[in-house]
Design a protein that fits this description.
Length: about 550
């Protein structure tokens, strides 16, 4: 199995990064975390460390942290690395950094940043003004976040006109872009993305004696804003990304944030009371009810590209972490039993997939599970299913779907018409997507009058990702981003290339399929809307990544 992707935390100074890093320290073995150093103090040492980590990347090294630019990581780290960062409002960030630099108690001289690179300098004092630092480019650099997140391998020198757009494009591909002002929410998003459960944090390097941003003079604010125009725009963009991520976080997010805040050591507590490693471990969820990472549950509607998508899950996720819930249309009782077993929190399961209704999964799996599905144009899906059934080389009687439930039947042949299947509800059921997504535990029987509205509501509120078969590569990229997998090539599975293309199907057959799938036609229209919103929110890089995924997959 491939190694899990490296987690790379791009730590912008004075954004609460030291606090964020406490969750890594308490979640991973010490040997699994590598610090690449501080590029503002010793860029050559940071470069050596990045190269060394990249050369020795293995299953042992899981997390990379440091004051090291994204451009440097991108140049050397594996291409499937998963990136995280946190941004802070630029005026508050700059003031915090300034007061940290002039605070008493530090010894000097030290290597400190200048616009041209680090220099051995005496430590600044409160007599060194904020304006002097920013104008001279000494001690405190302008547009710190843009410098750290654009494509430059070094944070020094003049920023080019393209730097801001590069930084925006880069963070749109990050797994999580947190916001210091909403730190608890940011940490919950990071912990969910990495499957850590709720890990309390301990506040680090918090200067509670500095003036608040509200106390800054208008002159100070104007000076900072004039020198950080790029960062002001980048921060605004980061807040948009963050809001979208929170909106997509699903059920239980607010409760997790509140619980994390309750269990963590806050900024107002004395440093002597910061939790030790042992106490933080003790504050994890009680052992009597073990907490496992949030399950990702893929509801596989037949003939929607699901078998192809499952190749990505099996390749990209750790060995043994992907489990199949079964096929309810072939073995309803067996599928129910498997789902019940998978609900056991002791199971080392991260992903559940199967031709299994949303309602059955929802009834038994953990409440905070993250749901994914893919829908296909109902006419094309039904025709694909029909030609797959009559083209199967199955021998002897098997369990097939009927409207009443699975029955032992002989395999259908080309003499079994599409109309016969749909009219009799044998082999091929009508409104398959609605049956799978309306919330009922069984897909059989007559659909109720509210089935379509229930399915729509479930797609809107219960699913983190709704993909579209007709845009499969983009759907897979969105899933890989959600799981933090990087680009994992897929293998096309169960594709019937001998069936007639949709445009070659007679009009009467199309009309027949539409007549029996009116609910699915309306549900598919909603799914396209949801997918389009997700695609737009994901940024311009989605199309490029989808094209790269297609190229990688075709290359084998």
């Amino acid at each position: 199995m491939p190694r899990p992707p490296l987690v790379v935390y791009v730590h912008i100074p004075k954004t609460a990064g030291s606090t964020v890093r406490t969750i890594f320290a308490h979640s991973y073995d010490r040997r699994a975390i590598r610090n690449t150093g501080n590029a503002f103090r010793d860029p050559e040492k940071a470069l050596r460390r990045v190269r060394r980590v990249a050369q020795r990347a293995s299953s042992v090294v899981r997390v990379v942290v440091g004051h090291t630019p994204y451009g440097l990581h991108k140049a050397y780290m594996p291409s499937d690395s998963l990136y995280l960062t946190v941004l802070r409002e630029p005026v508050d960030h700059t003031l915090s950094h300034y007061h940290y630099l002039v605070a008493p108690g530090r010894k000097g001289p030290q290597y400190l940043p200048t616009r041209e690179g680090p220099r051995l300098l005496p430590l600044p004092t409160p007599e060194t003004s904020l304006e002097e630092m920013l104008e001279g480019g000494v001690y405190l650099l302008d547009n710190m976040a843009t410098r750290m997140l654009c494509n430059l391998e070094s944070p020094f020198g003049a920023l080019g006109p393209e730097s801001l757009e590069q930084a925006k494009q880069n963070i749109s591909r990050f797994a999580v872009v947190g916001i210091t002002e909403r730190l608890d929410e940011s940490i919950v998003l990071i912990e969910r993305t990495l499957g850590l459960g709720l890990v309390p944090y301990a506040s680090q390097k918090v200067n509670s004696d500095r003036p608040s941003v509200a106390e800054a003079s208008d002159d100070q604010r104007s000076v900072i804003e004039a020198h950080n125009r790029l960062d002001l725009e980048l921060y605004s963009f980061a807040c948009e990304l963050f809001d979208r991520k929170v909106a997509a976080a699903g059920n239980g997010f607010e409760a997790d944030v509140e619980e994390l805040s309750r269990r963590s050591v806050g900024r107002d507590e004395p440093r002597a009371q910061l939790l030790s490693r042992e106490r933080i471990k003790e504050q994890r969820r009680p052992k009597a009810t073990p907490k496992r990472p949030q399950l990702v549950v893929y509801v596989h509607v037949p003939k929607t590209g699901g078998s192809t998508l499952e190749t990505v899950l099996l390749r990209g996720c750790p060995r043994g972490s992907v489990r199949i819930a079964g096929n309810v249309f072939r073995n309803e009782d067996g599928t129910l039993e498997r789902v019940r077993r998978l609900a056991d929190p002791k199971k080392r399961v991260q992903v559940v997939t199967g031709v299994t209704p949303y309602g059955l999964l929802r009834a038994h799996l953990p409440e905070n599970s993250r749901y994914v599905t893919v829908l296909r144009d109902p006419v094309d899906r039904t025709l694909s299913h029909y030609y797959w059934l009559i083209g199967s080389r199955a021998e002897g009687s098997q369990k097939y779907a009927t409207r009443e439930g699975p029955r032992l039947l002989p395999p259908p042949t080309a003499e079994t018409s599409l109309e016969q299947m749909l009219e009799e509800g044998v082999y091929l059921l009508d409104n398959m997507a609605t049956r799978m997504l309306c919330g009922r535990e069984s897909p059989f029987g007559e659909l109720s009058a509210d089935a379509l509205e229930s399915a729509k509501q479930n797609l809107r509120e219960g699913f983190e990702l709704v993909g579209i078969t007709e845009r499969l590569e983009e759907s897979i990229v969105l899933l890989q981003r959600m799981l933090g997998l990087g680009l994992v090539p897929y293998t096309s599975e169960k594709v019937n290339r001998d069936r007639p293309r949709l445009e070659e199907v007679p009009e009467e057959e199309r009309a027949l399929v539409e007549e029996h799938n009116r609910l699915d036609l309306e549900l598919y229209a909603l799914a396209r809307e949801l997918f389009e919103r997700k695609a737009v929110a994901s940024g311009k890089s989605l199309e490029a990544e989808a094209e790269e995924l297609r190229r990688m997959s075709e290359a084998g």
